[in-house]
Amino acid sequence: MAATARRRDGLDAQERMLKEAMAAIAEDGLATLTMSALAKRLGTSGGHILYYFGNKDRLLLEALRWSESTLAEERRALLTRRVAAERKLDLFLQLYLPVGPRDPRWTLWIELWARTGSNEDLRAAQAEIDVGWQEDLASLLAKGVRQGRFAAGLDTGAVASQLLALLDGLSTRVVLGQHGADRDGALDMARAVAARLVERA
What we know:
The protein is an all-alpha fold.
């Protein structure tokens, strides 16, 4: 009983750290997030955070996983909604795109992408997260085909990959604050491309 309580306390402590890390990234960007700065926000020590995560890369990866787990739940709920396939696809696009230039999830993605070349753990974790998005989008498209809402014979895996590549590019532009890039414009472009890719003859 006591061991279970300790594990629960440890998981709660980790979640508080991850939540605070995401909040810090949203407020001040990733460059200012250090173990000592995060420890100060939490009222603890840098060593305490290192006890749970070991290093900054691991902290960032676990923060991304924590954030993505929430989105995975939203995706699963979306896939079971009783709405038209076109509407479901639109909601998927909205869920994927960043909320704006300070989106902490997308800030983390961009930072960790740059580190995957030399870090096998990061590369494997990112691939695992990507597969979830790919499989869910392909499933959504396949259901739309079965319902006659999308083109018959649509290569759902290929179209899912194309859409996700487009969304990654649009999301990066939004998060980096490139001139003329904002969420509304990115969503409009994603909608237009998605409509062309799935349209019936």
